[in-house]
């Protein structure tokens, strides 16, 4: 998988009635430890730890957890990670209100079971930059899948950690999943925003790595989706 040397995909798997599904959190090296990008489910944290060990790290090396958004497949494992690491948690302002329990997850009843709330240490109002060993990582607002969705862009590596802003299948980059996207028009506008960046490869939370993921492909996704609406 052609990702930057300082980026370590940590795939976790979930068995469902429809078969095994794979999700793609990852860790990014910094001079102060690891940034964990999304935390998976509560019951996949052991897989996360195993992936870290395979990459030569321990869960205790995680210093910061960066959340692309607030859905349970990205945040369910956060409470355990934070309890074992005291990592700083970073999310968008919108996501933070769900992660910390101030608001319920989308589509749920406030009385329903949900993942354990966790305090967000840094709630982002817009763009920001993280210093990493893969170069500066720019936080790019990519709303649509959820209102506060964000992605991480590494300009020195022409690399994108997309979260759920786009998806992949068999190595090919695809658009946002309409089944789980709250505002498709906004999601496609976010894809057009990404198409203006110098991106040549992308890691999607759903679908994994896509090598053919350049600006032209991003623009084509938005055009094709607009044409079919």
Automatic annotation (TrEMBL):
<dbReference type="InterPro" id="IPR001279">
    <property type="entry name" value="Metallo-B-lactamas"/>
</dbReference>
<dbReference type="InterPro" id="IPR036866">
    <property type="entry name" value="RibonucZ/Hydroxyglut_hydro"/>
</dbReference>
<feature type="domain" description="Metallo-beta-lactamase">
    <location>
        <begin position="22"/>
        <end position="206"/>
    </location>
</feature>
<dbReference type="Pfam" id="PF00753">
    <property type="entry name" value="Lactamase_B"/>
</dbReference>
<feature type="region of interest" description="Disordered">
    <location>
        <begin position="95"/>
        <end position="114"/>
    </location>
</feature>
<dbReference type="InterPro" id="IPR050855">
    <property type="entry name" value="NDM-1-like"/>
</dbReference>
<protein>
    <submittedName>
        <fullName>MBL fold metallo-hydrolase</fullName>
    </submittedName>
</protein>
């Amino acid at each position: 998988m052609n990702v930057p040397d300082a980026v370590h995909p940590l795939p976790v798997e979930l068995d469902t009635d429809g078969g095994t599904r794979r999700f793609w959190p990852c860790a990014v090296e910094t001079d102060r430890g690891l940034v964990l990008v999304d935390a998976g489910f509560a019951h996949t944290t052991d897989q996360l730890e195993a992936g870290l060990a395979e990459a030569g790290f321990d869960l205790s090396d995680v210093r910061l957890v960066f959340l692309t958004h607030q859905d349970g497949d990205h945040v369910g494992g956060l409470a355990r990670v934070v309890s074992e690491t005291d990592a700083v948690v970073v999310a968008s302002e919108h996501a933070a209100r769900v992660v910390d329990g101030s608001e319920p997850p989308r589509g749920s009843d406030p009385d329903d079971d949900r993942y354990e709330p966790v305090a967000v240490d840094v709630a982002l109002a817009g763009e920001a930059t993280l210093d990493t060993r893969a170069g500066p990582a720019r936080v790019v607002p990519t709303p649509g899948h959820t209102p506060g969705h964000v992605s991480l862009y590494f300009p020195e590596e022409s690399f994108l950690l997309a979260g759920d802003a786009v998806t992949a299948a068999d190595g090919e980059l695809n658009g946002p999943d309409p089944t789980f996207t709250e505002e498709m028009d906004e999601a496609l506008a976010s894809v057009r925003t990404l198409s203006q960046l110098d991106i040549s490869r992308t890691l999607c939370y759903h679908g994994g790595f896509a090598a053919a993921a350049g600006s032209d492909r991003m623009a084509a996704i938005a055009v094709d989706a607009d044409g079919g609406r």
